[in-house]
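FIELD: query
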Amino acid sequence: MDTQPTGITYERVDVAYFEKRGLKRYAGVASLWALGVGAVISGHFSGWNLGLASGGWGGMFIAAVLIAVMYLGLTFSIAEMSPALPHTGAAYSFARTAMGPWGGFITGLCENVEYVITPAVVVFFIGSYLGSIFETPVEFQPVYWIFGYVVFVGLNVVGVELSFKVTLVVTLLALACLVAFWVSAFPVVDFSRWALNVAADGTELPNGGGPFLPHGIGGALAAMPFAVWLFLAIEQLPLAAEESVDPKRDMPRGIILGILTLIISAFMILWLNSSVPNGTFALATSGEPLLDGFRAIYGDGLAKVLALVAVIGLIASFHTIIYAQGRQIYSLSRAGYFPRWLSITHGTRKTPHVAMLAGALVALVLMFAVWFSVGAAEGSAIIGGTLLNMAVFGAMLSYIMQALSYIILKRTHPHIERPYKSPFGVVGAGLTIIIAIVTLGFQLSDPTYRAGVIGVAIWFALGIVYFAIAGRHKLVLSPEEEFALSKGEAEYKTY
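FIELD: result
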C-alpha cells in the first residue's frame, strides 16, 4: 500500500494484473479518422434537426458555427495532448496529470455519462428508422435496441482488427449516403421557400420567405445543445491510443482530418436537408430528417430502401461509440477508479469485453426504466430528446475539464514532449470553455430537459460518493497514474 498526501492510496499489483488487461495495437491514420468520424456521423442523420424548433434555420446556423468553433478549440487541444500523453485514459489521463486524482476521476465520470448514454440515443434512432421500414408497432422498439446491442457489442468483442475494419467500412458507407443526398438535393433546393418557412410566432409559412432568426438570437443560443450533436464524440479518438500503431504521429492526423470532415458534412446537411420540400418547419419535429429529405426528393416509393441506407450512418456511430464506451470504462477500472473487474480483457482477443457488456447493460436498464415507467409514446420523446441532452450535458462538462487540463499542462508541464502543437493554443482552449458553459446554461434553462440534467447530477453524486468512500483507496499504478505521479518524467508504457 502506498498512501499519497492527498489521501489517495495505491495498492501494489503484480505483472499478472496487467497481463489480464492487455490490449493489441492495430490502428493507423485511416482507422483513427474512421473512428472519430464514424462516432459522430449519426448526428448528421438524426438529432441535430431538433434545434430547428428552438432557433429556426438561421438560429441553428449560428449555433452550429459557435459549436464548430468550440470543437475546433477542443480537438486541436486534444491533438496536442494525446500524443504527449498516449494512454487509453484520454480525457481522464489529461485531467489526472493536470489536476490530480480527483480531477481525473470527475473528468472520467463526465465522459462516462456521455459514452454510456450516447449509444442509447443512437440505438433509439436506429429503432425509429427500422420501425418505419418494417412497419412494426411502437411497442416493438425495445426489440431493436436489444438486437443492436447484442450484434455490435459482439462485433467489438471479437477483436480490434475486425472492430476497426467494420468502423472504416460503415463510416465510408455513411459518408457515401450523405454525399448521395447532397447530390440529389442540389437540383430541388429552394432555400428561401423551405429553409425560411418558419414565422416569428413559430407557425409555418407555406411560401417561405420568413425571417432568418424567427426566434431571435436567444433562439440561436437555445439551439446550441442540439448543434453539439453534429460533432459529439469526435473527442473519443485518444481512447484508442494504446491500440494505435504510432499514436505520437497518427493521433493528431486522425483527429484533425476527422473534425475537418465533420465540419464540411455538418454545414452541407444543415443547408440541404432544410432546403428541400417540407423544409425547416417539418424537420424540427422529425425523428428521421435525412429519410424525410430523401422522401421529398424521390417520393414514398423508394422510402424503405432509402431508410435502410440511412440506417448505415446510425450504425456507424453506434458501433464506434460502443468501442469508446468500452475503452473509457476499461481505463478508469484498470487504474482502480471503477471496480477493477471491469477492466479484464478477453484472454485471446484482448478486447475489454467486460467493460463493453457492463456499459450496454446500464444503457438498456436506463432505456427500459424510461420506457416502462411513462409508456411507449411518451417514452420515445424522453429517450429521443431528454437522453440526448443528458449525453450533451456530460460532454460539455468533460470538454470544460479537458480544455482546462490543456491550459494547466501548458503552464505546469512545459517539459513534456509535444510532437504536435495546437495553432490555437490557450486561446482556443479558452473559447472551448466559454462556449461549453453557455451551452450548459441554455440546457439548464429549458424545463423540458431539466429532468435529464438532474439525472446526470444524481449519476455524478453516486460516483463521487463511491470514490470518496472506497475508490480513492484502491488505485493502481496504471500507465496514466505512473506518468502523472512522475510529473511527466516517466516514459509512457503499455502492458
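FIELD: remark
The beta strands are 2-3, 9-10.
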